[in-house]
Amino acid sequence: MFKDVPLINISTKDINVKIPSLTSDDISKYGSYLQSRIQKNETILQDRQALWDQLTNLCSTTQAKTQLQNDSQLQQELATLQKASTQDTQKIADLQ
């Protein structure tokens, strides 16, 4: 009885798969995107640095200046923006 019924029925079928290719236009668009991102990050970094300078100039006491300089969150954010800018520059260099 069990010999007449197969336990597993396997069949094959050809499937066409379309894989998109990257064109030079796509690469140049991505390069332009990274360039604009670098410019935007540099502008943000300059604005924040200017704000930092204004804040430190407004502080009249040494203790307040020390507290602002030790503000790790602002320093960490500035470092993150600088790192992102460096990474974007490297990506553009790799594309060229």
In short:
This protein is mainly α and 96 residues long.
User: How many E strands?
Assistant: 0
Helix content: 55-70%
Q: What series of H and E elements makes up the topology?
A: HHH
Distance between the termini: 69 Å
Low-confidence stretches: none
Radius of gyration: 28 Å
Q: In DSSP terms, counting alpha (H) and pi (I) runs of 4 or more, how many helices?
A: 3
List the helices and strands and how they pair.
Elements: H1 24-58, H2 62-69, H3 72-95
Helix pairs in contact: 1-3
Task: Please provide a written account of the structure.
The chain has 3 helices and no strands. The protein has helices at residues 24-58, 62-69, 72-95. The longest helix has 35 residues, at 24-58. It is elongated and about 90 Å long. It starts with 23 loop residues before the first helix and ends with a helix.
Attribute tags:
96 residues, mainly alpha, 3 helices, elongated
